[in-house]
């Protein structure tokens, strides 16, 4: 189970989602000016520039080297499809990775201080399972792969040690003291039953605080993050590295919520217009900026059509090597006309043979497992009908023909036990953030 959580992101930190009862962590945050009464017009006394520090530190006597930072950055970039950030983006990334390494070091040190240290054997066992189950490699092959991308087995094992240490600390120092009453669960259960049929959204959020003094810079940083995400970056990884909301530690996942739980009319309106897989932002809200990612949406207590299992026939026509674009278009038009003559799945194989096409049958295809564009098309088909042709010069042209559909049964929503577990997890995560904040406050940290 731990390996499954560990591999949720290539940040390898747990990515459990909050399922109910939480709104945006970005709303209602108190700014530094409110708390400390800092004037807008200030003068820096002395030449020190914290932004000019090298990305190394000593945490309670334990050194974090530049190599530690570089190898962890390599892991993150690899998780984001070997992204190539510019110099400024890379600088910000290294500083954030250093902060994460400091937190990780504090967690490991705390576990050791409380005689709960994670042994080298435990780390090695987890590393071996991760290599096999997540990457389908032997430990030796995983070692070589990490070296190839500029990281190391030691860097990943340190991250594993930090996760195991923190998990152990939470189980002893947090979880036993979190309780949820039956009354709370019943009240939430009744509210959910009353809201059956209304839409629920699973949202990812990246939040960064802003003040009048740094507003422009924060907005620019957020726009650069959006560009990286649009180019294929991992939302979970970026949320882990950059988000200042409490949900940052779980990849920005707010879990399944209703729009009112966002507690911000602007965020509610933006989210209502999103389709699963779409991004929005940066959106300016009180205290900072947010980037929203709609992971999924559903109707409470109702069956989701995308959970239907389809029986499909894929009819495909490949283009020979050397086919020009004009020739491919002609062949595709003839293919489309031939498909229109098929009267039901029973004729598909015979017509495909005449067209020189191939047929592949699959009787267990879940709608949501298909690309978003095909999901909508298939849900509107009747048995025996096919999608419009799709493809490319390299891949050829193909259609999907619907031969059967098993619609999902109506769902009753989460049980009371599930709701209790979700509420407990929410409270554990909030207390965990306070615990980590206390460790930071008490630490002696020297920057080089």
Automatic annotation (TrEMBL):
Pfam families: Rotamase, SurA_N_3. The keyword Disulfide bond does not apply. One of its GO terms (molecular function) is peptidyl-prolyl cis-trans isomerase activity. Coiled coil: none annotated. Keywords: Isomerase, Rotamase, Signal. Residues 1-19 form the signal peptide. Residues 198-296 form the PpiC domain. PROSITE patterns: PPIC_PPIASE_2. This is Parvulin-like PPIase. It comes from Croceibacterium xixiisoli.
């Amino acid at each position: 189970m731990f390996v499954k959580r560990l591999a949720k992101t290539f940040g390898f930190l747990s990515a459990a989602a909050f399922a109910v009862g939480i709104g945006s962590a970005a709303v209602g945050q108190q700014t530094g000016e409110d708390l400390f009464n800092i004037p807008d017009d200030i003068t820096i006394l002395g030449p020190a520039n914290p932004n000019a520090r090298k990305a190394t530190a000593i945490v309670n006597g334990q050194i974090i080297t530049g190599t530690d930072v570089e190898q962890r950055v390599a892991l993150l970039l690899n998780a984001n499809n070997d992204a190539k950030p510019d110099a400024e983006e890379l600088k910000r990334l290294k500083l954030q990775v250093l902060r994460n390494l400091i937190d990780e070091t504090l967690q490991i040190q705390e576990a050791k201080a409380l005689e709960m240290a994670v042994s080298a054997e435990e780390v090695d066992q987890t590393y071996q399972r991760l290599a096999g189950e997540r990457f389908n490699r032997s430990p030796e092959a995983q070692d070589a792969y990490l070296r190839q991308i500029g990281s190391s087995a030691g860097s990943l094992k340190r991250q594993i040690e930090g996760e195991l240490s923190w998990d152990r600390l939470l189980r002893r120092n947090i979880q036993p003291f979190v309780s949820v009453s039956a009354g709370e669960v019943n009240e939430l259960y009744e509210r959910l039953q009353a809201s059956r049929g209304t839409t629920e959204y699973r949202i990812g959020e990246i939040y960064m605080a802003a003040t009048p003094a740094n507003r422009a810079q924060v907005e620019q940083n957020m726009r650069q993050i959006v560009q990286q995400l649009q180019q294929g970056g991992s939302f979970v990884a970026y949320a882990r590295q950059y988000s200042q909301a409490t949900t940052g530690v779980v990849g920005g996942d707010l879990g399944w919520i209703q729009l009112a739980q966002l507690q911000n009319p602007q965020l509610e309106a933006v989210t209502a217009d999103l389709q699963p897989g779409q991004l929005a932002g940066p959106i300016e809200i009180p205290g900072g900026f947010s980037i929203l990612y709609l992971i999924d949406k559903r109707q409470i207590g109702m069956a989701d059509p995308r959970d239907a299992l389809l029986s499909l026939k894929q009819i495909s026509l490949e283009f020979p090597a050397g086919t020009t674009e004009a020739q491919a278009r002609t062949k595709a038009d003839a293919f489309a006309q031939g498909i229109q003559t098929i009267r039901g799945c029973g004729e598909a194989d015979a017509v495909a043979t005449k067209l020189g096409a191939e047929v592949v049958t699959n009787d267990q295809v879940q709608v949501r497992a298909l690309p978003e564009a095909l999901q909508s098309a298939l849900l509107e088909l009747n048995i025996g009908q096919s999608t419009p042709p799709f493809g490319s010069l390299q891949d050829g042209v193909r259609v999907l023909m619907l031969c059967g559909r098993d619609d999902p049964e109506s769902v009753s929503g989460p049980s009371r036990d599930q709701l209790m577990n979700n509420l407990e997890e929410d409270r554990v995560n909030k207390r965990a953030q306070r615990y980590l904040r206390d460790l930071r406050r008490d630490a002696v940290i020297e920057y080089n």
